[in-house]
Design goal:
The chain has 112 residues and is mainly alpha-helical.
Length: 112
């Protein structure tokens, strides 16, 4: 193991350790591989808060999307065909258009 790999592993473990200390499950060198500590559980939302959020979601009409795990449609301005074509022409004039259209990684270039 190189020094660079060792230092990367050490810094990663140092960053993850505090997050694990606040969770309910802790890694252990036992046969099960972990121990549970219910006293470390953090208070979440109350039942009333969850029910209020669910009622609001039903009123908004978003419940149908959340129920099936579908992406929620974004509400925004609808672009006309002319606006879309103008945006396409502007994008095609960008210096990195040939690379981006085939999905190649491109360095950050500011748009003209």
């Amino acid at each position: 193991m190189t020094v660079r790999t060792f230092l990367a592993a050490l810094s990663l473990s140092a960053a993850v350790a505090p997050a694990m200390a606040s969770s309910v499950i802790h890694p252990a060198t036992t046969e099960m591989g972990y121990t549970t500590h219910p006293e470390h559980a953090q208070a979440g939302k109350s039942r009333d808060q969850v029910l209020a959020e669910m009622d609001q979601s039903k009123k908004d009409g978003l419940w149908q999307y959340h129920r099936f795990g579908a992406p929620v449609p974004v509400k925004g301005k609808v672009a006309s065909r002319g606006e879309v074509l103008a945006d396409l022409e502007r994008s095609q004039k960008h210096p990195s258009w040939a690379l981006r259209r085939v999905g190649a990684p491109v360095a950050a270039i500011l748009a003209p």
